[in-house]
């Protein structure tokens, strides 16, 4: 059957079909429009799934200003489609330079949004550093990444946060699914597509064993890889060991690894001394939010020649003849490579649902009385999104009986009956 023009021309149509939670919010709030009269700033990787989140905010009544959280992951057709709609304004275009990306975010903040839904704490950090008058009037925010939470914790420790922020990344519906399954699958999928090289049988080194690293290591092993984990936290290292991965220092891992994937949220995880010990043909990829986990300046300084043998692959020829292959220029491999499409839509559906809930709760719900600071999303909201997800899957679960609920509140347990 020939597709209708509306289906063929709409860059959001496929993502919309696979984001049933967001569609349910559009249906529920499309008439009551609880976010009417609010302006919501939205920063994320601008691809179809984020497009559905933006149109969901608009359906609920918000005026939406959107910008990338990373300049090289922007899909031009998505930006064009959204920017043409009433009540939605783009501060983005495909092919932005880092300087244009930075300037566009400042331009957005000058529009004085009421609420900020962020990725990597890009907008929230900028509004505090450079637009203090705007920050004073922001009602609240939400943050969906590990890197962003780290920045927010630093801001809270310094006492500079001007408004309350929900740490969406730390809610179970985000880190158990998006971080583990989304990052794990999308990183390995895009590495395989970019390199057209097999993962099975390779020594795959995963740097960091948080939720993202855990997902990458687990799924790499499921593909037949010999997995190695590096860590700085002894408890996470022990967890990786008990999960069946080999645990090594980076110095040890660099001598045996074939494929290295960073997922730490920190900087210079792989640097000069590691590059010096790597085998010929080693492949390097980053799954962290910022392009600082692989020390690119060290690579460039060490290389005698830099080539691009394949789209998405930068090859550094060392003076001793070894070749090190960097994917996606050290940026997010699952989003900025030439074939990258980010996390599967079914997983991002839950994450963006939690972002929507964060805005709804602070602007139209019970979170409007929060004082400045970083907060966990209330468990009732997280559970509500989980219930919606199960409904879309057609999955049924049990409910506790009255006696079971009573048993959970009885600390003495004197007998077996209530």
UniProtKB/TrEMBL annotation:
One GO-annotated biological process of the protein: one-carbon metabolic process
- Start and end residues of each S-adenosyl-L-homocysteine hydrolase NAD binding domain: 179-340
- Report whether NAD shows up as a keyword of the record: yes
What InterPro entries would the database entry show?
Answer: Adenosylhomocyst_ase-like_sf, Adenosylhomocysteinase-like, Ado_hCys_hydrolase_NAD-bd, NAD(P)-bd_dom_sf, S-Ado-L-homoCys_hydrolase_CS
Question: What is this protein identified as?
Answer: Adenosylhomocysteinase
Name the keywords, alphabetized: NAD, One-carbon metabolism
Q: How is the cofactor bound?
A: Binds 1 NAD(+) per subunit.
Q: Which residues bind NAD(+)?
A: 210-215, 231, 287-289, 334, 343
Q: Which cofactor does it need?
A: NAD(+)
> What protein family is recorded?
Belongs to the adenosylhomocysteinase family.
């Amino acid at each position: 059957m020939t597709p209708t023009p509306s289906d063929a021309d709409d860059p959001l149509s496929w993502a919309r079909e696979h984001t049933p939670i967001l569609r349910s919010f559009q249906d529920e709030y499309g008439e009551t429009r609880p976010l009417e009269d609010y302006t919501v700033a939205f920063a994320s990787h601008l691809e179809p799934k984020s497009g559905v989140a933006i149109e969901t905010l608009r359906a609920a009544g918000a005026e939406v200003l959107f910008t990338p959280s990373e300049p090289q992951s922007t899909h031009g057709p998505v930006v064009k489609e959204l920017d043409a709609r009433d009540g939605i304004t783009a501060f983005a275009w495909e092919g932005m330079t880092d300087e244009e990306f930075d300037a566009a975010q400042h331009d957005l903040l000058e529009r004085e949004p009421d609420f900020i839904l962020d990725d990597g704490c890009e907008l929230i950090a900028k509004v505090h550093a450079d637009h203090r008058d705007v920050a004073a009037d922001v009602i609240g925010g939400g943050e969906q990444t590990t890197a962003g939470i780290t920045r927010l914790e630093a801001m809270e420790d310094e006492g500079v946060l001007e408004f309350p922020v929900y740490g969406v990344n730390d809610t179970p519906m985000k880190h158990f699914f998006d971080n583990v399954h989304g990052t794990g699958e999308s990183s390995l999928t895009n590495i395989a597509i970019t390199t057209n090289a097999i993962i099975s049988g390779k020594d795959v080194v995963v740097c960091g064993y948080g939720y993202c690293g855990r997902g990458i290591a687990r799924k790499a092993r499921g593909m037949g890889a010999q997995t190695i984990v590096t860590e700085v936290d002894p408890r996470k290292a022990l967890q990786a060991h008990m999960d069946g991965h080999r645990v090594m220092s980076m110095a040890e891992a660099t001598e045996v690894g074939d494929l290295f994937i960073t997922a730490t949220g920190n900087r210079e995880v792989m640097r000069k001394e590691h590059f010096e010990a790597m085998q010929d043909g080693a492949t390097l990829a980053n799954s962290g939010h910022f392009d600082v986990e692989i020390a690119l300046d060290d690579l460039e300084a060490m290389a005698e020649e830099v080539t691009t043998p394949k789209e998405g692959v930068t090859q550094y020829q060392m003076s001793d003849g070894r070749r090190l292959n960097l994917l996606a220029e050290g940026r997010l491999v699952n989003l900025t490579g030439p074939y990258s499409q980010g996390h599967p839509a079914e997983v991002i559906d839950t994450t963006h649902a939690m972002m929507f809930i964060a805005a709804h709760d602070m602007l139209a719900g019970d979170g409007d009385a929060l004082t400045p600071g970083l907060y966990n999303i209330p468990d009732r909201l997280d559970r509500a999104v989980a219930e919606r997800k199960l409904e879309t899957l057609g999955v049924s679960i049990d409910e506790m009986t009255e006696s079971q609920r009573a048993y959970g509140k009885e600390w003495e347990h004197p007998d077996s009956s209530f």
